[in-house]
Amino acid sequence: MRRALKRSGMAMLLIAALMLGTPVASATSDKHGKDFVLEEATIAQVQAAFDDGSLTCVELVERYLDRIEAYEENGPELNAITTINPDALETAEELDAERERFGPRSRLHCIPVLLKDNIDTFDMPTSNGSVILKDAFAPDDAYVADNLRAQGALILGKASMGEFAGGPYSTLDGQMINPYNFKRNTGGSSAGSAAAVAANLTMLAVGTDTSTSVRGPSSYNGIVGLRPTTGLISRDGIAPKNLTFDTAGPMGRTVTDVALMMGALTGRDHSDPLNVEVYEEYPFDPEEGSPDNGIDYTGYLDDEALEGVRLGVLRDFFEGADPEIVELAEDALKVMEKQGATLVDISIDPEFLEFYVTNGGDNIREIADYRFYDEFQAYLETLGPDEDVPDSIEEMIEIYETEVNDSDLPVADSVLEDLLRDSLDDSIDEPEFQNLVNNLLPAAAEYKLSLFDDHDLDALVFPYEASFAAPISNPVETVEDPTYVPDTTPQAAIFAGYSDPGFPGIVVPMGFGSQGLPMDISFMGKPYSEGQLIAYAYDYEQASREREPSPLTPPLDD
Predict the structure, then answer these.
(1) 106 catalytic residue (yes or no)
(2) Which of 119, 126, 145, 231 would give a disulfide with 278, using CB separation of 3.0 to 4.6 Å?
């Protein structure tokens, strides 16, 4: 089913190309674009090529479509992209004409972006990774999609995702594949967003993060991912998983590119009450923008930002980790220290670690999802009456049981049983949910803030994942890979992700293990410290330069 959908998109692109008189797979026939090095290109490099006339928007889009055809439709079939925008070439031509006549709208003018497929667009389906919703159209763009288009970004398509923001498998796309090792997964649930950026199938992507779904896949795929303070980016038009924690987040290959897109994603939006509340508290610097027009984070890109900074090294997330990850993290810390940072080894209170992180992690996730039924049911109603879109979660369960589970891509139990069916009996009125939101999450935030205050810290730092990407395992197949080294470390994602308010964090490539798989180091800050985290991440990135493309998805031959 996924293949039919994607090839339909390619067919529409061919029709558009014929109407424009432009070949789709034309890297060898470009007048100028063939001399431009696409792989690992940054926004600044693309804009410079636009400015000097060596590249056009149409040529840039064609080059990405070539790579998508090579690594999605053919070759390893990474399953990173669900839908290609059928109007991509037409839009590129319009953006070229606009640039020539008026100049670029912003630094994102004609920068290709993939949106995770739980972010609404009026012109493409929003499937949430579910084959049941493959034809579900929202009435309008999500706030973030609208902002990106307004700045001239080109929405290249929709990135594959774990079903209803779960792991790296769905009934629509199947298994999402790690571009660095085809036996390993991508992490979830912004799986396609991360893999597509890492494999140079797009310049940028937008993911969403409820507990770890931007930072985890970014780490497993060796790219930069930022989870902001919860509410800083409007959730309007993003299918909910759990609005206590849900947020969108930018994903790219460099900190600079992530900072640029972050500015386009932010801004006050009265459609999201939490967003309005956050902007009432946000400490704005007039030079950084305004609440209504977004925040310019590029002023934080300082390659001396770590000088004099105190970083708390959370040693709890080193113990029991894959030794290769520990070695990479120690090397990363040496770079930070060389850049002038003071490193302070700290440990989480054992009682907090045991109750909140180790034993409480899965339970916290389960109880937090008590919101899912009411919120997703309300989202279904925004899709409007359509015979191809279920009216209710109950109807979806029936379709999964009677149709989908007889297909080649059956639904995972974590979706059908643990999320959808359990949601029928869950309620936010339950005492355990009320205790979580009124007591446990605020207490967790207070404890985390105490770590900063007690040790006079500017940020916390730790390897975001304790193991490299795991072998593929889903309802269809299980891949054996004896080279995989599991960990026994408490989940850093639980500590980083679960509190109220939600804390921001950014992950940056810190190198590769012996199996060729990448891993990221994480900087975590207090609420509203996105700018400082971008600064620290940029300084580290510039001093270390650990980002490398996958040799398994090389440049295409001319």
Answers:
(1) no
(2) 231
